[in-house]
Backbone:
């Protein structure tokens, strides 16, 4: 469900402030109404429900401030500096001149070489401010030639100022070259590093851009929004590039049985996931109580259904293909079942033709067609095509208005699109059709809670919390209800009760690795118990070695601990398990951020604060 791993999963764990290296502060930023203003930022990262890493954390902070303004202008708690674009010639103020102080307007023989260089720079600054960039470049070039070579700081300023003039002329190669000179002379020169990062962005040197902006973020203590936004932008671009190539050539991988069962449990009107009917079994099977079923050999689809009941998932696609090739009685069902497993193994391109065909089969059972539309719509959303996704869900509602699955899954889509009121209306429609469908009721309650929490509406938050209590009382066997309630309790810093809810969830679903991850994150935020947190996340991997969320979380924690090699290894494992190109792009962004920090540490000796 979307609530378990927010789609905007941010990337700012590297911003964790603390002691060390003289960067960062001790405070953090609080979510609306959380009262967490004194938490270190890595704690807040955990509090919002997903691990964070360098870059998109800025987007989270920006969107939170926007929501606060819309909710009544309660101010900016982020502490980020919102600098305007740096267009003026940048560099340190002119140092004290040598003997016989001059204002830079003359060419006195008494002026030292440095004095004359400063005068040329000042003249260049005047040209720059007048928009005469070519003349400014000439003056800065003169300053460079006059400056004594041992005056590293001053010389670096002149190169940086000339780079600023080249930037105005959009001569990006020259910008990068001059900034490189400036950084060679002054390795922690923030303005030169940031200007070079922007030049690399224009030159499409994404890796170099990321390294420079990472260094800037660390030097600025992750307090400059402009730098954070550039880091976020380049990380996303790199992630998409890497994922596009990797996902196209990836080996299909069947997820764990627990994941597959959880996926099918989110449908109540899905014919293909229902147990085999008596009429589908052979006469011999009907007399075999408690024994494995054997279906008629001439039906690949029925054989696939038998494998589903046996949890022998690897054989399902091939058996469905037999039914389809033979154009058998259950061809529509086989197409839908095969498409579903293509989606589960991450082969969306293979799934789409099967889904298209089922949807176009007018003579097929309407529930099959509606289910195919739901799955195609979900696939479109994963591919960041919300308009096509919405069209498919709306068509499903038109052809099968009494299908509760349409409203349940469309409600989740609406949450992702930040259309909470419409999502709640869809969940209500689902509940009217399936009053005992606990999952939809729990998700509706969570949607209402997030809406109230974001708006900082304390009375609505309390109403939603009361709603969770009613749901777990009414549906004590619904593990998702406890898990979502635990997330809300964590937001409200009711950590002890949240821990109890996760324990109940584990009692109901001991093989659900994701719950162990969330419980592990809770230990970090609640008790600052790193060992216990890692122990629980390791337990998740032991239970399900295909749980990408566990590897991702472990990697993020290792970033915060400064263990970059181990973090990169964890992210790579998660990448190989990603179920969609979009998810893979996000994971590549995390991995690229860790790589960039490794390079910055090697080049400049810069490291962000660690746990």
Residues:
């Amino acid at each position: 469900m979307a609530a378990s791993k927010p789609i905007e999963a941010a990337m700012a764990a590297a911003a964790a402030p603390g002691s060390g290296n003289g960067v960062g502060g001790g405070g953090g930023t609080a979510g609306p109404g959380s009262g967490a203003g004194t938490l270190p930022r890595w704690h807040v990262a955990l509090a919002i429900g997903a691990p964070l890493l360098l870059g998109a954390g800025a987007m989270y902070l920006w969107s939170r401030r926007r929501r606060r303004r819309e909710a009544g202008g309660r101010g900016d708690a982020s502490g980020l500096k919102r600098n305007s674009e740096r267009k003026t010639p940048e560099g340190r103020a002119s140092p004290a001149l040598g003997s016989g102080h001059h204002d830079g307007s003359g060419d006195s023989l008494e002026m030292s070489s440095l004095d004359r260089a400063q005068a040329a720079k000042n003249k260049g600054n005047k040209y720059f401010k007048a928009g005469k960039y070519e003349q400014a470049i000439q003056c800065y070039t003169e300053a460079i030639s006059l400056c004594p070579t041992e005056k590293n700081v001053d010389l670096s300023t002149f190169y940086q100022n000339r780079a600023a003039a080249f930037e105005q002329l959009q001569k990006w190669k020259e910008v990068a070259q001059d900034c490189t000179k400036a950084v060679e002379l002054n390795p922690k020169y923030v303005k030169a590093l940031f200007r070079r990062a922007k030049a690399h962005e224009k030159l499409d040197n994404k890796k170099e851009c990321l390294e420079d902006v990472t260094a800037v973020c660390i030097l600025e203590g992750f307090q400059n929004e402009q730098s954070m936004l550039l880091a976020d932008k380049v990380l996303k671009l790199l992630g998409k590039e890497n994922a596009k190539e990797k996902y196209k050539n990836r080996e299909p991988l069947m997820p764990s049985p627990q994941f597959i069962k959880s996926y099918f449990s989110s449908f109540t009107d899905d014919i293909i996931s229902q147990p085999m009917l008596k009429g589908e079994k052979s006469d011999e099977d009907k007399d075999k109580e408690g024994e494995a079923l054997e279906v008629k050999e001439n039906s690949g689809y029925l054989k696939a259904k038998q494998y589903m009941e046996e949890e022998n998932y690897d054989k399902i696609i091939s058996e469905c293909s037999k039914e389809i090739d033979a154009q058998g009685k259950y061809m529509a069902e086989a197409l839908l079942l095969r498409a579903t497993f293509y989606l589960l193994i991450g082969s969306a391109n293979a799934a789409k033709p099967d889904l298209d065909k089922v949807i176009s089969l007018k003579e097929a059972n309407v529930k099959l067609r509606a289910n195919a539309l739901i799955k195609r719509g979900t696939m479109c959303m994963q591919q960041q095509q919300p308009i096509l996704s919405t069209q498919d869900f709306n068509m499903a509602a038109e052809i099968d208005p009494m299908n509760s699955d349409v409203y349940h899954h469309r409600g989740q889509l609406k949450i992702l699109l930040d259309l909470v009121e419409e999502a709640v209306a869809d969940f209500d429609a689902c509940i009217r059709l399936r009053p005992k469908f606990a999952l939809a009721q729990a998700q509706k309650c969570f949607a209402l809670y997030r809406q109230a929490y974001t708006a900082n509406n304390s009375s609505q938050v309390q109403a939603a919390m009361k709603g969770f209590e009613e749901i777990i009382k009414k549906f004590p066997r619904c593990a998702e209800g406890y898990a979502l309630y635990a997330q809300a309790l964590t937001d409200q810093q009711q950590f002890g009760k949240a821990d109890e809810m996760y324990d109940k969830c584990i009692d109901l679903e001991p093989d659900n690795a994701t719950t162990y991850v969330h419980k592990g994150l809770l230990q970090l935020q609640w008790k600052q118990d790193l060992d216990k947190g890692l122990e629980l996340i390791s337990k998740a991997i032991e239970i399900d070695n295909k749980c990408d969320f566990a590897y991702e979380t472990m990697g993020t924690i290792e970033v915060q601990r400064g263990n970059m090699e181990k973090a990169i290894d964890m992210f790579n494992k998660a990448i190989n398990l990603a179920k969609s190109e979009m998810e893979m792009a996000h994971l590549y962004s995390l991995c690229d951020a860790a790589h960039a920090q490794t390079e910055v540490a090697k080049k400049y000796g810069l490291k962000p604060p660690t746990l």
Summary: The domain at 511-585 is CATH 1.25.40.10 (Serine Threonine Protein Phosphatase 5, Tetratricopeptide repeat).
